[in-house]
Amino acid sequence: MATSFVKSTSIHPHISSAFLTSPSNYCLSKAMALVSSFCPHPHFHFTTKPIFSFSSKQNNFSTSIAQAEGKQTKIGFLGLGIMGSPMAQNLLKAGCDVTVWNRTKSKCDPLISLGAKYESCPEGVAASCDVTFAMLADPESAVDVACGKNGAASGLSQGKGYVDVSTVDVATSKLISEHIKATGAEFLEAPVSGSKKPAEDGQLIFLTAGDRSLFEATSTLLDIMGKSKFYLGDVGNGAAMKLVVNMIMGSMMASFSEGILLSEKVGLDPSVLVEVISQGAISAPMYSMKGPSMVKSSYPTAFPLKHQQKDLRLALALAESVSQPIPIAAATNELYKIAKSRGLSDQDFSAVIEALKVKLQH
């Protein structure tokens, strides 16, 4: 399928006048078609974003989400950690009607103070909302919140949508999809590339797969939280893309850590190394962002090290499933495991450099 570039607007380019006036049941209102309705106070300027082009053929889900005149689309958000909280906050700042849930209720309080509603379980959120987003820490949590007791699936029905933005493996994403679609609801996996700061700034990259109609219907919501979005086809492709991206990122950070320590050991200023790298062909925003604090042995958490190691582990399993050797990632995974064993799990993944520091014996 060819890629095209379209500019985000308040009315989706493929929504016809008939689409906007057709009758439907009250399940989903105007998440895509009438942005001004559910985001009455837009604070974002949407720029050109790469997405795949689609035909204008209508479908039942898009028809249902377009309607319920005079109603504001209700958006659910499950999981308010380092990533989920700023993502939900950006939806609130854009004027959206948001209902939240988190295992630790106190994490909901800042969002409630901004106007969010609260439900005591994922089932309650899904039942009261039109589209529900989930940002959970790992595959186990993602399955439990979606499919477990009082999980979101119990509150879903035909005409609703569930968008899982967690980073999980392909098998987990397919499992969640099966449970969601069994309710009659539509499913989109949409793991994000980006950490705390991009989440706060609405600069995430969404790697989506699943029901294309849900992708189209929630396109503007994704634009509020991110700077670009890719539709990748069948469920599992989004999860796989995210694991490949994070596998590369983890390996890059490990190599960068080796360079910082080696430069210091041979008498060079590692701060100058960071500057040299930032001006060359191997420059990457990650190096410029993380380097200065790493030189000072400071690792403010933007992406927890335990999550980076989890993603490497999942990437290794993905590679094993297709008999693809990834020896660099395998060695990198061992380094992150050492860092975890030294109590660095909850620090930023750049703390992996500590696993390379050799303590001199006296």
From TrEMBL:
Statement: the UniProt record of this protein carries the keyword Oxidoreductase: yes
Pfam families the record matches: NAD_binding_11, NAD_binding_2
InterPro entries, sorted: 3-OH-isobutyrate_DH-rel_CS, 6-PGluconate_DH-like_C_sf, 6PGD_dom2, 6PGDH_NADP-bd, HIBADH-like_NADP-bd, HIBADH-related_NP60_sf, NAD(P)-bd_dom_sf
Oxidoreductase in keyword set: yes
Protein keywords: NAD, NADP, Oxidoreductase, Stress response
Limits of the 6-phosphogluconate dehydrogenase NADP-binding domain: 74-233
Source species, domain of life: Eukaryota
Alphabetized PANTHER family for the sequence: CYTOKINE-LIKE NUCLEAR FACTOR N-PAC, OXIDOREDUCTASE GLYR1-RELATED
Chain's role: Catalyzes the NADPH-dependent reduction of glyoxylate to glycolate as well as succinic semialdehyde (SSA) to gamma-hydroxybutyrate in vitro. May function in redox homeostasis and play a role in oxidative stress tolerance by detoxifying glyoxylate and SSA generated in glycolate metabolism and GABA metabolism, respectively.
Protein name: Oxidoreductase
